[in-house]
Design a protein that fits this description.
Elements (H helix, E strand, L loop, with lengths): L1 H20 L4 H12 L33 E5 L2 E6 L13 E5 L6 E5 L6 H7 L5 E8 L2 E8 L7 E8 L7 E9 L11 E4 L5 E5 L6 E7 L4 E2 L6 E4 L9 E9 L4 E8 L7 E7 L26 E4 L2 E2 L6 E12 L2 E10 L6 E10 L5 E3 L19 E8 L7 E2 L1 E5 L4 E3 L3 E8 L3 E8 L5 E13 L4 E9 L5 E9 L3
Parallel strand pairs: 18-24
Antiparallel strand pairs: 1-2, 2-3, 3-4, 5-6, 6-7, 7-8, 9-10, 10-11, 11-12, 11-13, 14-15, 15-16, 16-17, 19-20, 20-21, 21-22, 23-25, 23-31, 25-26, 26-27, 27-28, 28-29, 29-30, 30-31
Keywords: Glycosidase, Hydrolase
GO molecular function, one term: hydrolase activity, hydrolyzing O-glycosyl compounds
Pathway: Glycan metabolism; L-arabinan degradation
């Protein structure tokens, strides 16, 4: 199969391709920047302060540091992120962290939404902090949903507070759902969403039997009926039922609901999957028609994988990205999630990625973090060059490394791991036909190309994000332009 071969040869191919292509010389880098500059690229974002111990204990200086399980909400011209009580190297103050931004790039600290763990949640769970919030608006009030639990237990509590302002003060309204040891569900990770008819729903769950959904009363923000609700997604006990962090959106253009979930270990191989449905309460299926409730299929094969640990070239990379929310900002879509630095997984950060869509309605994520880029017409001659490419294999959720491929102006693709051909179609659509160097099997990917900021090399570039008919995602980042 092409994808395992591509992974296995990634590091070796890097050395081979550097010898073949001579690396990226200073003149090549200058030409790349010049070429991309003509495509109206993003402006240079501020430098990052990763692994900076001087920031610890200084929330006002954190920016995107110490953001875990982010929930995004836009109010006017300001974006707000609510996140788990988590902090590197010290005990996080309880009450839900809140940040704001005007551009999804620069984040400033507001503080804690609540004054600690609400009494009923604390008494039921013994929790010392709050996890995985979500926020929405019902009528004249904002409703902040929070969860309380202890790690590895399902004596858990989802509560809700309300306010007339996103910055508070918040009035706690108490219990929404709670579960106990011995129950088959786990009441954490709330996600609140309106369906296309305007009805309000709550998706929730982590491990145990999976993700469930209940309908809410818009007068109270609480369930209309008793019970755990309907099952949306679950995983086999062979992988410990490792699924959580549900997030639902409705796409009016495709008239589909999309369920995003996070699989596997929070600290090791966390990754984001997605399925879609005609109804908010499912069934949700992936590109192969496999239901997200299917626990008989090989667990790693279920769901379209759109995000996992990665590294481009020899630069530092990221591991265990996940627990996302999605921002629908007019006709633009963005996915927000946390990720851990591969140099030290104890450091975790907020990341924002632009979301695009395949022609048949599957979400695709930019390989690079958002820096203000906008989709725009890109000329075919800009595509030729050397690209670092990652296939997001569904059966390998550890950090994946890129391998270089040269896309020649005559439509050929050459590399140690694969060869093939490429075409460029309207709407910045790049079609890749990649032939496995070992088996000869050909995989065809439909990709979208857009300008981006290369966070690893601190320069402007082009990227692509794509998918094949089996729902396997592919990423690419240009490192050398052949355009003259």
């Amino acid at each position: 199969m092409f994808k395992p071969i591509f992974r296995a040869l990634a590091l070796g191919a890097l050395l081979v391709m550097v010898l073949s292509f001579g690396g990226l010389a200073v003149s090549d880098a200058s030409r790349l920047v010049k070429d991309i500059a003509t495509a109206n690229p993003p402006t240079e974002p501020p430098g990052e302060r990763l692994y900076d111990f001087s920031l610890l204990g200084r929330p006002d200086a954190w920016g995107n540091l110490n953001v875990h399980d982010p929930a995004v909400y836009r109010d006017g011209d300001t974006y707000y992120v609510f996140s788990t009580d988590a902090s590197l190297a010290d005990v996080a103050r309880p009450g839900i962290q809140v940040r704001k931004s005007r551009d999804l790039i620069h984040w400033s600290w507001i503080g804690q939404a609540l004054g600690g763990v609400p009494r009923k949640a604390r008494e039921w769970t013994g929790a010392t902090g709050l996890w995985a919030p979500d926020v929405t608006r019902i009528g004249a009030h904002y409703y902040l949903y929070y969860s309380a639990s202890t790690f590895g237990k399902n004596r858990s509590f989802i509560g809700v507070a309300r306010s007339k302002r996103l910055t508070g003060p918040w009035e706690d309204l108490g219990e929404v759902l709670k579960t106990d040891i011995g129950d088959r569900v786990n009441a954490i990770d709330p996600n609140v969403v309106y369906d296309s008819a305007g009805d309000l729903w709550l998706a929730y769950g982590s491990f145990w039997s999976g993700i469930h959904i209940v309908r809410l009363d818009q007068k109270t923000g609480k369930p209309l009926e008793k019970g755990v609700g309907k099952l949306l997604a679950s995983r086999s006990l062979s992988v410990h039922g490792a699924i959580e962090g549900a997030y639902l959106i409705y796409h009016p253009g495709y008239k589909k609901y999309y369920l995003f979930v996070s699989y596997d270990s929070l600290f090791k191989d966390y990754n984001v999957r997605v399925g879609r449905s005609d109804r908010i309460d499912g069934p949700y299926v992936d590109a192969n028609g496999v239901a997200l409730t299917d626990t008989r299929t090989e667990p790693a094969a279920v769901g379209n994988k759109i995000l996992g640990g990665y590294r481009f070239g020899n630069a530092d990379g990221w591991i265990a990205p996940g627990h996302n929310s999605v921002l629908q900002d007019g006709e633009e879509y963005y996915l927000l999630h946390h990720a851990r630095g591969d140099r030290d997984k104890n450091w975790f950060y907020l990341q924002v990625r632009k979301m695009l869509w395949s022609r048949d309605g599957w979400p695709l994520l930019s390989p690079e973090r958002y820096a203000g880029e906008r989709e725009q017409d890109i000329a075919k001659e800009r595509i030729a060059g050397v690209w670092e490419v990652i296939v997001l294999a569904k059966d390998d959720n550890l950090q994946l490394s890129s391998a270089p491929l040269r896309l020649s102006a005559d439509g050929r693709i050459d590399g140690a791991a694969a060869k093939g051909s490429w075409e460029f179609a309207p709407d910045n659509t790049l079609i890749l036909h990649l032939q496995d160097s070992d088996t000869g099997q050909v995989s065809t990917y439909e990709c979208r190309v857009l300008p981006a900021w290369d966070w690893e090399e601190r320069r402007r570039t082009l990227v692509f994000t794509g998918i094949d008919p089996q729902g396997i995602a592919i990423w690419g980042k240009m490192t050398e332009s052949s355009s003259r």
